[in-house]
Amino acid sequence: MKGNQDPNAAETGGLAPRRLAWRVLEAVAAGAYADNALERELAKSNLAPLDRGLATELAYGAIRQRLLLDAWIDAHGRLKANRQPPRLRWLLHVGLYQLLFSSRVPASAAVNTSVELAKEAGFARLAPVVNGLLRAVARARGPQESQGAAAVPGILPHADAAPALTGWQGLALPEAEADSLALRHSLPPWLATQLLQWCRPEEAEAFGRSSNTPPALDLRINRRRTSRAEVLAAFGAAGLTARALDDQAWGLCLSEASGDLRGLPGFAEGHWCVQDRTAQAIAPLLAPQPGQRVLDACAAPGGKSTHLAELMDDRGEIWAVDRSESRLKKVVANAERLGMASIQGLAADATELLELRPQWRGSFDRILVDAPCSGLGTLARHADARWRIQPDTIAQLAELQQRLLERLATLLRPDGRLVYATCTVHPQENREVVAGFLANHPSWRLVQDQQWWPAPQAGDGFYAAVLEPGTDTTAGGKGSGPA
Ligand SMILES: C[S@@+](CC[C@H](N)C(=O)[O-])C[C@H]1O[C@@H](n2cnc3c(N)ncnc32)[C@H](O)[C@@H]1O
């Protein structure tokens, strides 16, 4: 491959990025987080930017599409996917993903590279199985070259582009609506079933599509250091394409960014940070004022703490609390880079703050509870998340979210404002948590709440509720108080 700096890749016609993606799939199957596994493998490799992009797309894409890729193995393999030797199953996924989702990798390249990898890994005996299965799937899909595929091995459409092909075409779909939804969008069946209970079929379809569309890279401009126009100009001068976000005055979207963002113009100077466009809508809901005392109770890595500081012109007292000491270090590093002196970090369990700091009772003007959640609004961003979450995870999270809200509400001033937010679309973690809280605290008022659904043009899925106390900031309220 032209311009490739990896000698192995050059020798073997694009094997290196596919091999790397295969390793990531194996690591994730063994329990690793997809982003950690990919980062580790990329750090060990010497891939050129184009091949890094391919490896990333193949790894994340194949992990997202696991259920659908398994269905193809079930339909054309002699053994069902879950009976295949695991390494072979993941190699087949890398090959299948290219066949089904890339209009630019010719079928022959997807098949041949997979066969080569099988041989190289000592599976020579299984190479004919790989060859036979992938060719059977390619036949079931019809001729790809005739669908306008460019014959450029290793080049996939840019992340912003919708997949040219629908990965399930050629596969018999199950009759049950939820099973069909699960298969077509590679969603866990329990989630597909629940989605159809919460929303209309077309909304569930849109959720499925957006959960498989690689997200855009959004940035928030640090208004205390620069302007959006200056950052756009600096990116333009560096040959990068960025555009201002319509609905976020300080947001912009960066296209074609890959590799280490720390090398981009303005990073070291603290001119911007990475933050999804919907996430940029959360801190302003608190309407924080300079000089106020603010608590960000689940703060790491600090996207919203630093946003609060920007909105307050870095004047006031912002306590950034997080249970994870290591994650809290990221808050401190981000605050330093962006130049926000009003932020103080505290590693603590936010449900215990009242015991740890009794003097904090009723003392905050603003409290943000950006609660730990299932992240169902960010499935596209976290390729493996959908396979980790189970229905009972949701119930456990909802219990923690309820406890956080109950306990943290006691720290708010009677004339203060609290925002409860998550990046999930599950009603049990959102409206039901808030409804439970309001039932316990009848004097509190729901000023507004909103569910943002994830969409490629609209960012991550989020929920936020703006709450004000009236006169009641007592702990526990009626009925189910904190544990
Ligand atoms: C959704 S993330 C917060 C994102 C952050 N607000 C931002 O905008 O960058 C949730 C955070 O809650 C933290 N967390 C989980 N349980 C907690 C608890 N009991 N007390 C404090 N923090 C907790 C996690 O470590 C995680 O960093």
The set of bound ligands, ions and cofactors reads: S-adenosylmethionine
How do the strands line up in the largest sheet? 7-6-5-8-9-11-10
What sequence of helices (H) and strands (E) makes up the elements? HHHHHHHHHHHEHEEEEHEHEHEHHEHEE
Integer average pLDDT: 90
CATH architecture tag of the largest domain: 3-Layer(aba) Sandwich
CATH superfamily of the largest domain: Vaccinia Virus protein VP39
The percent range for helix content is 40-55%
Low-confidence stretches: 1-11, 145-165, 475-483
Number of E strands? 11
Distance between the termini: 60 Å
Indicate the structural class: alpha/beta
Main sheet overview = 7 strands, mixed
Tally of separate domains: 3
What is Rg?
24 Å
Q: Which CATH first-tier class of the largest domain would you pick?
A: Alpha Beta
The number of helical segments is: 18
Envelope shape:
globular
